[in-house]
Design a protein that fits this description.
Length: 212
């Protein structure tokens, strides 16, 4: 059973990584003059949409946290609405944090908010898919020795790594603020993605070693 979970986890990671790569190349076939730098706002929306869609599809297909209890339609609708509210709260919270850490309050508001959206996509969306809108479960997973499955362990590692990657990527921004690739938080996005990818692979490798 654990071997099957590790295989499913590996395939899930590969598809998530592949979705980010697709968000870079596919839009260029449909959108004229598309590039990450020149049309960065469009790319942020597309990347967020790709990652969210893949996470949702994988959740319904793989069902890592499947429950055998049947829930009513009203319960499912309520759960979905709570997830949407949690995601929006996450976006606004990250936006406020970015402003407190030095992002412009009025200028580049859309850029900063979309960066908050994509960070929420990398962190909050997987939490909502796996744990649902359950704050107690979130606190348990992100507390010391609180994970109970390889899925929760992977979630813990990749979420923390996304925050660290976004923070490290923002460090060089004040060094050359006037360059376009600095203004649109590209470095932060790059390191966020790299950290997410690396920790996805490392968490799967760690679980494989434990199994062997």
């Amino acid at each position: 059973m654990k071997d099957n979970d590790i295989k499913r986890l590996l395939y899930t990671h590969l598809l998530c990584v592949f979705s980010i790569i697709l968000s870079v190349f596919i839009p260029s076939f449909f959108l004229e003059n598309f590039s990450i730098l020149e049309t960065h706002l469009t790319w942020l929306c597309i990347c967020s949409g790709f990652v969210t869609a893949v996470n949702l599809v994988l959740y319904f297909v793989v069902k890592p946290n499947a429950s055998y209890k049947r829930s009513s339609l009203s319960h499912k609708v309520t759960r979905f609405l709570k997830c949407c509210i949690y995601f929006l709260m996450s976006c606004f919270t990250f936006h406020i944090i970015f402003v407190l850490y030095g992002a412009p309050l009025i200028e580049l508001v859309l850029e900063t908010f979309l960066f908050a959206v994509i960070l929420s996509t990398f962190t909050t969306i997987p939490c909502l898919c796996l744990l649902g809108p359950n704050l107690k479960a979130w606190l348990r997973v992100f507390s010391r020795n609180g994970v109970t499955s390889i899925w929760e362990n992977s979630l813990q590692i990749t979420t923390i790594s996304s925050f660290v990657g976004a923070w490290l990527g923002a460090l060089p921004i004040p060094l050359d603020w006037e360059r376009p690739w600095q203004v649109v938080h590209t470095e932060a996005l790059t390191l966020l993605s790299v950290a997410w990818h690396l920790e996805y692979g490392r968490s799967t490798e760690d679980q494989t070693k434990k199994l062997n």
